[in-house]
Structure formats: C-alpha cells, structure tokens
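Name: Signal recognition particle protein
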Amino acid sequence: MFDTLSDRLTAALQTLTRKGKLSDADIDATAREIRIALLEADVALGVVKTFIARIKERAKGAEVSQALNPAQQVIKIVNEELVGILGGETRRLSLAKTPPTVIMLAGLQGAGKTTLAGKLALWLKKQGHAPMLVACDLQRPNAVTQLQVVGERAGVVTFAPEPGNGVGDPVDVARRAIAEAKHAQHDVVVVDTAGRLGVDEELMKQAADIRDAVEPDEVLFVVDAMIGQDAVTTAQAFQDGVGFSGVVLTKLDGDARGGAALSVREVTGQPILFASNGEKLEDFDTFHPDRMASRILG
Ligand code: GDP
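Structure predicted for Signal recognition particle protein:
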C-alpha cells in the first residue's frame, strides 16, 4: 500500500546522507519533499502540517550526536514522528473485568466489518477466549448469512434472529445476545452492525441505540484504508454520531495511497488497534505503530 510514499520518503532522506553538515536550508528542502510525498499519499492536510512543523523544529534543534551523523538524526526524527502520528504504543483491546467483554463494530457498508468479525473471532479464539458473534446488521440482505459463514469458518457461535420474522429489531437482538452470552459463558461478544454506503442519520441512530443497549467495552470504527481523504470525514461523522474507542484499518493489502491509515489516529484522537490485510480470516493482526513506520520508511 505504501510503495510510492515509501520510495519518495526514502529518496528525500537519501539526499541528506550525501551531505556532511546540514544547514537549515537543507532541512527545509527535505521537509518540502516529505510534505509533497505525504500529500500525494492522501494524508490529511492538517496532519501533514503538524508533522512537517515537528520535523523541522526537531531537526533544526537537534544536538550534535556522537553516534549518528546529521542525516541519520533526521531519519530518526522522521521515524519517531511517524510512529507518533500512528499512535505511539500498541494499544491492547480492553477486556471487561466481569465477562462478557462486548465489542461493537461500526463503519460504512463494504468497510469490511463482517469479515473483520470473523477475523477477530478467530484471533480471540487463538488467545484462549470463547467469542460469540452477534448479527445486528439486519438491513442488508444476506448480512446475517454472511456473518454465520465467517463464524463457521472461524469455528465460533453466531447469534442471529430467527429467520422469517421480518426485518427484526437489531437492538432487541443485541440485548438477547448478551443474555445468551452470559448464559452460555462466552467471554467476548462481537456485535456486527449495519453500514450504509454513505453516512446517514438513521444508521447513526441505530448504532447509537445498539451501543446504549449493550454498553460496549470497545466500539471499533472499521475503515477501509483505500478510501483516501473520505476516511477522515467518515471517521469524524462516526465519532460524532456513535463515538468509538478504537480504529481497525482494513484492506491495507490494497494498492491505494494509504493516507487514511496515516491520518485517522491523529484526526480522531483514537488509537488503531488492529489491521487487516487480505480477505482470508488469518490476514489480520494487532496494529503496531513502530512496525508500520518502519514499513513506510523502507
Ligand atoms: P461490511 O459491509 O463492512 O460488512 O464489509 P464486508 O466484510 O462484507 O467486506 C466487503 C468486501 O471487502 C468483501 O468482499 C471482503 O472480502 C473484502 N475485504 C474485507 N477486508 C479486506 C481486507 O483486509 N483486504 C481485502 N483485499 N479485502 C477485504
């Protein structure tokens, strides 16, 4: 996903390695290159501005180091700042003191929520948990079946409304699912919710009603990293409408420019917990800001 960005950043920083001592003009020129590379990768403008200002300030004020030459010092600063905008430390999933832990998924249709529910279930199972999936996407035809299919592939139970009872009430399904999870001793419940193609009020209200009914320990905003600048506006709409405690980036295996991945943490203030990079249930892992920064810097 970050091939072009990675190439451009590497090229910008390599120019410095040919120089011994760095002047402010050298730093400004490199900062300009980095700025263009980030903007072309669709990173949100506000994020780019803050990032560049920090790089310039730190690079110009850097102490003379015994261990690193000036170019290496700038590279180190860029790396640290990248890790910073990606969230710094890895943030673990918060688990409830009294099970079940309730994790609610929210996001646009097609973001990868249902697939993620299966991925998360498999991942939780491997960690020794006994997860249960809950089908609260009752709008989209086949959404319930799709969740049941990923649940089966992950080898976990899926709680779904009885077929043939009309559209059904997702809030009621969510409530009954929690009761069932307690009864059947599932320690983690993953609630899949409906998404629309665009942000709309009805979707937000439904998600907020489900949230109020199940009092989740985590609301994870699932966002397709390929949607570019739109990711930022979508994230803000979900933050205002539902609120979320963490982000999951999907489709990092795509060849889009990836700016969303670099903007969403900084713009929403919420950490990225997981990343998905493929259609298979195994294509999923905890998100590590430092590893992602290293991948981007090549
Ligand atoms: P939902 O509408 O949010 O529930 O999204 P789905 O889970 O149905 O996913 C939409 C499409 O994206 C499906 O075709 C998935 O196979 C695909 N998908 C989901 N996650 C990933 C991913 O990480 N990488 C790729 N390449 N495709 C994904």
